[in-house]
Amino acid sequence: MSDPFQNVQTGKNVVIEEDVHIGKNVVIGHNTVILPGTSIGDNVKIGANCVIGIYPEGNNSMRESSQNVHPLIIKNGTKIGQLVTIYAGTLVGENVFIGDLASIREHVLVGEGTVIGRSAVIELNSRIGKNCTVQTLAYVTGDTILENNVFLGPNVSMANDKYMGAKAYTLRGPYIKQGAKVGNNASLLPGIQIGEDAVVGAGAVVTKDVESGLVVTGVPAKNQS
Amino acid sequence: MSDPFQNVQTGKNVVIEEDVHIGKNVVIGHNTVILPGTSIGDNVKIGANCVIGIYPEGNNSMRESSQNVHPLIIKNGTKIGQLVTIYAGTLVGENVFIGDLASIREHVLVGEGTVIGRSAVIELNSRIGKNCTVQTLAYVTGDTILENNVFLGPNVSMANDKYMGAKAYTLRGPYIKQGAKVGNNASLLPGIQIGEDAVVGAGAVVTKDVESGLVVTGVPAKNQS
Amino acid sequence: MSDPFQNVQTGKNVVIEEDVHIGKNVVIGHNTVILPGTSIGDNVKIGANCVIGIYPEGNNSMRESSQNVHPLIIKNGTKIGQLVTIYAGTLVGENVFIGDLASIREHVLVGEGTVIGRSAVIELNSRIGKNCTVQTLAYVTGDTILENNVFLGPNVSMANDKYMGAKAYTLRGPYIKQGAKVGNNASLLPGIQIGEDAVVGAGAVVTKDVESGLVVTGVPAKNQS
Q1: Distance from CA of C92 to the nearest CA of B (A)
Q2: Entry pTM
C-alpha cells in the first residue's frame, strides 16, 4: 500500500479510495473496498469482500437521503466480518462487532460494545445504544431508537410506516428503552414504545406501547401476569 | 476495458465475461463480476462485489431450472447496490432499485419502477409487477405473482409447497393483486390469493384467500370489520 | 495457479492461502477467497465472491469459540453459490448445496445431500443431518440438532438463550427429529424438541415439545387433531 498506511495489513485486491484515514494496527481482508473519505480507528479489523463507506443511492420512489452526508467513521477496536456493507453518514463506536453479511445504512449511530449479528440490517436514521445485541437476521427499520443494553433476538422485525406507502406520513420506527429484550421473530409496529426492562416474547406482534418491566406475548401481544 | 465498453466506468478488479452488452453511461463498482451474455441498458449503476447474470446450479434434490435459460437483461436506468446476485433467465425492467445483498433468481420478471429491498430474496419463476415495493429481508417464494403497486413489508414470508417436500405437488406461490399491502413479518401460505387493495396486518398468518379491499390480521388471519 | 492445483479451474482475482488442499475437477469463481488450511474435495464447485474457511472472531461480549478450531473441510461433489461464508472447524458433507449469501459458522456438521438455502444462517456448534432442507432465509441458532430428512421452511426462526443474555445459562437450541417439517416463518424456542415426522404450521410459535407425528399450529402452537 501507499505510504500513509504503513501500519495497515491489507489483503489482496483491496481497493482504498482517496482521503481514507486508517489508524494503527488495522487489518483489512482480501477484496474489500474502502470508499472515499472513510475514517477507520486503531485496531480495527475488517474481513474480506466488504464494501465500506458507501454513499447512498435510490430510485425515484425512495426518499432522498444523500444530502449532507459526512464520510463513515469507524472507531477503535471495532471488528467487522465478511461481505458487510456500511454507509457514509454513519458512526460506528468503539469495540463494536458486526457479523458477516450485515448492512448498516446512512445516518446511523452504533454505540460502543454493541453486537450487530450476521445478516442483520440497520436502516437509515436509526440510533443503537451501547452494549446492545442485535441478533442474526434481525431488522431495525429506519428512524428507530434503541437505548443502551437492548437485546433484539434473531429475526426480530419492525416497521416504520403505518400506511405502508399509501399516505404521506412522518416515518417513525419503534423506540426501545434501556434493558428491554425482544424475543426471536417478534414483530414491532411503527412508532410503538417498549419500556425499560420490558420483555417481548418470541413471535409476539406488538401493536401498542409496552410499559416498563412488563412481559408481553402473543398476537396481538398482551401482558402475562 | 476493451473497446466495446468505452462509455462504461468500471471499478478495479471488475470481471466482464464474453458476449456482455453494456449501454451508455453505465457505472460498475469494484470487484463486480458480469457473467456471459448479460445485457445491461443505458444509465445503469451497479455497486461493488456483485455477481450478475449467473447460470443456475443445484444438487440432486432440487428441481432443474437450467434448461432454456436466456442471459440476464437489465433495462435502462436501473440501480443495483452492493453484493447483489441476479440470475440468467431474468428480466429487470427500467428504473428498478435493488438493495445491497439482495438476490434474484432465474426466470423472474421485475417490473419498471419497482424497489427490491436489502437482503430480499426473489425465487425462480416469479413475476413482480410495476412500482411494487418489496422491503428489506422480504421473501418472495418461487412461482409467485405480484401485480402492480403491491407493497410487501419487511420480513414478509411466503411458501409455495404445502406438503413441504413430502409429496409430488405443483408448486404455487401466492397471487397478490394490484395495490395490496402486506405488513411486516406476515406469513403467506402456498397458493393463497390476496385481492386488490387488501391489507394484511403485521405478523398475520394468511391461510386462505383474502377478498379485495378487506383488512385481515391475526393467526390465522381474519377479517377486521 | 501454482502446481498443486493443476486440476482446478479458478476465476480471476481468486485468493488461495497457504496449506489449502483442493481435489480434482474443482471450479472456483472470481474474487473468491480460500483461507489457510481449507480442504476441498473432488468435483466441488464454489461461486464468485465467497469467503471460505474463516477463523472466528468476536468482541468481548461474545463467547470464545476460536479454541481448537480445525480447518474447514468440504467433501466431494458439494456446490456452493456466490457470496457465501463458511467457517473453520466445520465439516460440509458430500453433495451438499449451499445457496447464495448463506453463512455457516464454526463447529458445524452439514450432512450429505442437504440443501442450505439462500441467505440462510447456521450458527456455531450445530449439527444438520443428511438430506435435510433448510430453506431461504431460515435461521438455525447455535447448539441446534437437526436429524436426517428434516425440512425447515423459509424464514424459520430459532433461539437458544431463554434469558436473552440476562443470566448465565447453558445455551440450547432446538432438537428436531428425523423427518419433521417446520412451516415458513415459524418460531422455535430454546431447547424445545420436535418429534419424528411432526409438522409445525407456518407462523406457529413453538413453546414446548411436540410429540412425534403431531401437527401443531398457532401462537402458542397447539395440536390440531
Answers
A1: 14
A2: 0.95
